[in-house]
Specification:
By secondary structure, the protein is an alpha+beta fold. 46% of the residues lie in helices and 15% in strands. It is built from 4 helices and 4 strands, in the order ααααββββ. Strands 1-2-3-4 form a 4-stranded mixed sheet. The chain is rod-shaped and about 110 Å long. The relative contact order is 0.12.
Length: 183
């Protein structure tokens, strides 16, 4: 069988195409990988921020449950509630929106906040300057903050948490008259 030039060229082309990719094929693959990487990084950063916000909201919820159970325990023990919330914590005649600060609260309440700090150790937004639990209100993103207020001569513990850069916050008030305390 005679071999023609055409058949030799065809053999040569078939051999070459099975050994390597063309430049166009490589560029297309690199472009696709780049697009997938860009989409993946963007999506991951959104999930990360969402997870931090959810952790902040969970800390806020846990704090409310912890404070309510501590107050319930204190109200069941006759003398313990007086120790838990002292008159100096909620002097309704002197202040409308007084902050709860270390040294201005009863040692029992201070100890409750310290225990809560041990329960919720990690700041959701990894802020090294502030713990996850603070005396407030400061408006620190991710920190659960306590302060007290008197409304209509009722002592109230106010728990507030800022959970994003827009200063959106979760707020909860616990009326201490429900637990037998008054100003």
């Amino acid at each position: 069988m005679p071999t023609t030039v055409f058949s030799k060229i065809k053999q040569h082309l078939n051999k070459k195409s099975s050994k390597a990719f063309t430049l166009i094929e490589l560029l297309v693959v690199v472009a696709i990988i780049g697009i997938l990487a860009a989409v993946g990084v963007t999506a991951f950063s959104g999930f990360q921020e969402s997870a931090k916000i959810n952790a902040t909201k969970a800390n806020h919820s846990l704090t409310i449950k912890y404070v309510n159970s501590s107050l319930l325990k204190a109200s069941m023990d006759n003398g313990y509630m007086r120790d838990f919330i002292s008159v100096r914590d909620f002097d309704c005649s002197r202040a409308q929106d007084r902050k709860i600060l270390p040294g201005t609260v009863s040692s029992v309440m201070d100890s409750m906040v310290d225990n809560l700090k041990c329960t919720i150790k990690d700041h959701p937004f990894n802020d090294p300057n502030y713990p996850a639990i603070n005396y407030g209100p400061r408006g620190i993103k991710g920190s659960v903050e306590f302060y007290n207020r008197c409304t209509n001569q009722k002592p109230i513990i106010h728990i507030e948490t800022v959970y994003n850069d827009n200063n959106d916050k979760l707020s909860h008030q616990i009326d201490l008259t429900d637990f037998g305390s008054s100003c």
